[in-house]
Amino acid sequence: MVATGASLVVLAVVAVLAVSAGSSSLGVTDVVRTLLGAGTPGQELIVLELRLPRVVGAVVVGACLGLAGALTQTFARNPLATPDILGVTSGAGLGAVSAIVLAGGGYAVTGGLLSFGVPVAAVLGALVTSALVYGLSWRGGIDSYRLILIGIGMTASLGGLTSYLVARAQITEAAAATQWLVGSLSGMSWSSVWPAVVVLAVIAPLAATQTRALDVSQLGDDLSTGLGVAVQRHRLAVLVCAVLLTAGAVSAAGPLEFVAFVAPQVARRLTGTGRPPLVGSAVIGGLIVVGADLVTRTLLPGEVPVGILTAIIGAPYLIWLLIRHRKDERA
Fold first, then answer.
1. What is the rounded distance in angstroms from the CA atom of residue 160 to the CA atom of residue 141?
2. How far apart are CA 328 and CA 228, in angstroms?
3. pTM, whole model, 2 decimals?
4. Cα–Cα distance measured from residue 40 to residue 64, given in angstroms and rounded to the nearest whole number
5. Helices marked H in the chain
6. Distance CA 118, CA 94 (A)
7. Quick one: which of 286, 266, 268, 243 has its CA closest to 82?
8. What's the pLDDT tens digit per position in 185-207?
9. What is the C-alpha separation between 75 and 211, in angstroms, rounded?
10. Which residues form a coiled coil (predicted)?
11. What residues have CB less than 8 Å from 179, skipping those under 6 apart?
12. How many other C-beta atoms lie within 10 A of the C-beta of residue 223?
């Protein structure tokens, strides 16, 4: 609880700094005063309409990915079992790119089933992909390593389909899809933030109901069943929650790589728990994304998409984890 509370304080501080950062000179006191309703009309426009949606979006997207990663890593009992590796992110990405390329290149698109826009297309893509991965992995139960291997193969296949759609698209649609695929918070508005906020508000309480089952499931399937946990039903519920959280995040900011992988592991080490904590993972996920966005806007030349920085941070961590896991096996 102490580590989670401290992380929340750090997140609040970084979020205020992120709102104050930009071409228009606004101090932290100006931001706080504006948020409390005492700012000038110009400050209210800059803070509430231009910068706050981006910062809130970063926090919510990071929280969705951190929570989704904690759920999948825990139910599979494997730190590699994240939405990125299981193909869920790629499925959501393919659905969203299909909406962008096939229906006009905007956030709110039209045309058949895609008439509800990118968020719904991302959810459909993620659900279909997760169902395929889960079905192909089923052999009288789910083995985490088989699930990961099938997820890796599905990710590669969906990545090829996404590249095909981008290659066949018109130049404006291809540009919009390519920018979105990198993972960026640029140009985020309240209309693109609200779907992710709604997903987080609805799914987070549902995920919390699985806390006891997640704790018991760490003892193994046989003991979990003996203690009254319906293992397969529990895994399906956890997977659906993780899929919806990932789809909500991807629809808002694109596929931000490795956030769902890194955040739960950092939260687990900070709290000293045996499994990734749900609340702590969400907080760390939000902190990673909003912090990375602040760095890209203030310390790097130009405005680098935040997805590039999260990939740069996450890839070495993945390599380190694999090397450490192999050393532990040899020991």
1. 29
2. 32
3. 0.87
4. 33
5. 2-20, 28-35, 41-44, 52-76, 88-102, 118-137, 144-168, 171-182, 190-208, 211-217, 221-226, 231-253, 259-271, 278-298, 306-330
6. 10
7. 243
8. 887 888 888 888 999 999 999 99
9. 11
10. none
11. 186, 305
12. 12
Contacts of 183 (CB under 8 A, 6+ apart): 253, 254, 255, 256, 257, 305, 306, 307, 308, 310, 311
Q: What are phi and psi of 138, to 5 degrees?
A: -75, 120
204: buried, middle or exposed (CB in 10 Å: 19+, 13-18, 0-12)? middle
Which residues neighbour 91 within 8 Å (Cβ) at sequence distance 6 or greater? 125, 126, 127, 128, 129, 130, 154, 158
Between helix 52-76 and helix 190-208 the angle, nearest 10°, is: 30
pLDDT in tens, 126-145: 889 988 998 888 877 777 77
Per-residue pLDDT averaged across 144-159, rounded?
Answer: 88
Write the DSSP symbol of residue 304: -
Domains of the chain in sequence order: 2-330 (1.10.3470.10)
Query: Rounded to an integer, what distance in angstroms lies between the CA atom of residue 155 and that of residue 21?
Result: 36
Residue (of 323, 256, 311, 299) closest to 18 by Cα position: 299
Q: In which residue are the tokens 């997977």 written?
A: 239
Higher-pLDDT residue of 290, 116: 290
